[in-house]
Amino acid sequence: MGRPYSQDLRERVVEAAATTSRRQAAARFGVGVATSIRWMAALTTTGTVAARPQGRARRSKLDPHEAFLRGLIDAKDDITLEEMRARLRDEHDLTVGLGTLWTFLDARDLTYKKRQHTPPSRIDRT
């Protein structure tokens, strides 16, 4: 997918189209005639020629289950991802991958590194 035209170019085309024809303004700045016409129409209807946001909003199928997952973590703070997946599958009939679950929790700062308990070193620091 291509990138939108810059705001500066949009404003220059609209300024030129206000004094000349839309076709001449399009030819002068190297944009499509339909683009110039659309920008002028947008200016008259909305008052701006700003680009619309690109891409989709990022959503997760776990969004409706966030409260449930937070409850699991509150009840047992050292719960594993596999245990969460099993509870989601059993109680909500929802199958998710480990990566999906981890990404969801990481985006909400609900992950932490679990370290194995190791005995202290017998030698001094180096």
Which properties best describe this structure?
126 residues, 6 helices, elongated, mainly alpha, 0% strand
Q: On the 0-100 scale, what is the average pLDDT?
A: 88
Rg, Å, rounded: 27 Å
Contiguous low-pLDDT stretches (5 residues minimum) are none
Number of strands: 0
Helix- and strand-based class? mainly alpha
Helix content: 40-55%
Q: Hey, roughly how much beta strand do the residues contain? A: under 5%
Summarize the structure in words.
The chain is mainly alpha-helical. Among the domains are: 7-45; 63-107. It contains 6 helices and no strands. The chain has helices spanning 7-19, 22-29, 33-45, 66-75, 81-92, 98-107. The longest helix has 13 residues, at 7-19. It is elongated and about 80 Å long. The mean pLDDT is 88.
Which secondary structure elements does this structure contain, and how are they paired or packed?
Layout: H1 7-19, H2 22-29, H3 33-45, H4 66-75, H5 81-92, H6 98-107
